[in-house]
């Protein structure tokens, strides 16, 4: 179980509060959709939960153990539990899909492995297994620059799994995708929650969050205003966001 208490994040240049004393708990196997208007703090919340940005205030624990220091920063060890998927995954366009999965993202793998490309044999096979699981084995030797948007998102998910992430946060992972590709990505995310007990937290449009997620968080003006599980949002709840 992960527990967040009083998460506060300020914009360093202006001192403006982006996230205002947010508290929540979440656990294994949940697929959580974050909904809210543009500028409400959804992206910053995802980055904070994935330990990709420093907290100004608040505590973050897993099974009772702290994930961040008093300064609001996280160690590389703790960061490795989390993956952050951007809207447009930053893959190396000149390396194959398989090589991208092996090397991973900054924050997931040590700098020396990303620099040298050194991998273990079990990592090699693990990457092939994940590519096969998500229907991408035929893309293993294809340069990432030639993959579609949906394929790149699924490659990014494979990267997170191969490098041991327990919690995956995704910032609008299906923006710009056609409906079929969007469904394929969201089905992939849901399957890793159901089959592997991973936790996925994704910023999504309300209709997709209602369709795919087991729980919905509503964010407005940097505050958590909704936490609804197992059902669609009511009309009055939608007005809050």
From TrEMBL:
Alphabetical keyword list: ATP-binding, Cell membrane, Membrane, Nucleotide-binding, Translocase, Transport
Domain ABC transporter: 2-241
Organism: Paenibacillus physcomitrellae
Top-level taxonomic group: Bacteria
PANTHER family for the chain: AMINO ACID IMPORT ATP-BINDING PROTEIN (PTHR43166), PHOSPHONATES IMPORT ATP-BINDING PROTEIN PHNC (PTHR43166:SF6)
A GO term, aspect molecular function: ATP binding
Coiled-coil annotated residue ranges, if any: none
Protein's name according to its UniProt entry: Phosphonates import ATP-binding protein PhnC
């Amino acid at each position: 179980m992960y527990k967040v208490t009083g998460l506060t994040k300020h914009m360093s240049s202006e001192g403006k509060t982006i996230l205002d004393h947010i508290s929540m708990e979440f656990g294994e196997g949940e697929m959580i959709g974050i909904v809210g208007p543009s500028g409400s703090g959804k992206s910053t919340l995802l980055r904070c939960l994935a330990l990709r940005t420093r907290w100004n205030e608040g505590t973050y624990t897993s099974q009772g153990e702290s994930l961040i220091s008093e300064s609001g920063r996280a160690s590389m060890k703790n960061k490795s539990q989390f993956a952050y998927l951007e809207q447009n995954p930053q893959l190396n366009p000149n390396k194959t899909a398989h090589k991208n999965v092996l090397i991973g993202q900054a924050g997931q793998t040590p700098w020396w492995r990303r620099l040298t490309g050194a991998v273990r044999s079990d990592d090699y096979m693990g990457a092939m297994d994940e590519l096969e699981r998500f229907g991408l084995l035929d893309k293993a030797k294809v340069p990432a620059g030639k993959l579609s948007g949906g394929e790149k998102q699924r490659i990014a998910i494979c990267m997170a799994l191969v490098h041991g992430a327990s919690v995956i946060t995704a910032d609008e992972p299906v923006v710009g995708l056609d409906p079929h590709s969007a469904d394929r990505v969201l089905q992939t995310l849901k399957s890793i929650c159901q089959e592997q007990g991973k936790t996925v937290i994704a910023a999504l449009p309300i209709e997709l969050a209602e369709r795919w997620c087991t729980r919905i968080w509503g964010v407005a003006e940097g505050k958590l205003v909704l936490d609804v599980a197992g059902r669609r949002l009511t009309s009055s709840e939608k007005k809050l966001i």
